[in-house]
UniProtKB/TrEMBL annotation:
Name of this protein: Phosphopantetheine adenylyltransferase
Major localisation: cytoplasm
GO molecular function, a single term: nucleotidyltransferase activity
Entry keywords, A to Z: ATP-binding, Coenzyme A biosynthesis, Cytoplasm, Magnesium, Nucleotide-binding, Nucleotidyltransferase, Transferase
Residues binding ATP: T9, F10, H17, G93, L94, R95, E103, R128, Q129, A130, I131, A132, S133, K134
Residues the record lists as binding substrate: T9, K41, L78, R92
Organism (species): Thioclava marina
Cytidyltransferase-like domain: residues covered: 5-138
């Protein structure tokens, strides 16, 4: 069984993330969505909220397409998380050249730690390349419409965070 790991903070999960998840499903038998705890980023949503959002959105994907998606919170090294879940492939989404430079460094470090785990890059769909969770949160915080960037359920949660 080919297991892939798609890591991120998913704060919140966006249409860009969901696009990568759907496309990664074609590459693996099981896709593990690694929701990073990453206290340094100071997420808007608590870990439990992010996990629940990702699970709800992924359930819609598996209902529509089939396949297996598992949501797995983690706080250790990415390469150790890959070992923990049995992943032989790490899936990363790229939006622009700037993403590639950072990801290139990460691949080098991960390969030095464990060369048996391969990294696969998927380019974001052209309609989704500008979507970044950080920008989506800023738009929502300032009262803008984020419906082009997230699902209706995630939009409701975002608006709720900033209307309190």
């Amino acid at each position: 069984m080919r297991i892939g790991l798609y890591p991120g903070t998913f704060d919140p999960v966006t249409l860009g993330h969901l696009d990568i998840i759907e496309r990664a499903m074609a590459l693996v038998d099981r896709l593990v969505i690694g929701v990073a705890i990453n206290r340094d980023k100071g997420p808007l949503f608590a870990l439990e909220e992010r996990v629940a959002m990702v699970q709800a959105e992924c359930a819609k994907i598996t209902e529509r397409r089939g396949g297996e998606i598992v949501v797995h919170p983690f706080e250790n090294l990415l390469i150790d998380c890959a070992k923990d879940v049995g992943a032989s492939v790490i899936v990363r989404g790229l939006r622009a050249v700037a993403d590639f430079e950072y990801e290139f460094q990460m691949v080098g470090m991960n390969r030095a730690l464990d060369a048996s785990v391969e990294t696969v890059f998927l380019m974001a769909d052209a309609r989704r390349q500008a979507i970044a969770s950080k920008l989506v949160k800023e738009i929502a915080r300032l009262g803008g419409d984020v419906s082009k960037f997230v699902t209706p359920d995630v939009r409701t949660k975002l608006v709720g965070k900033f209307s309190a």
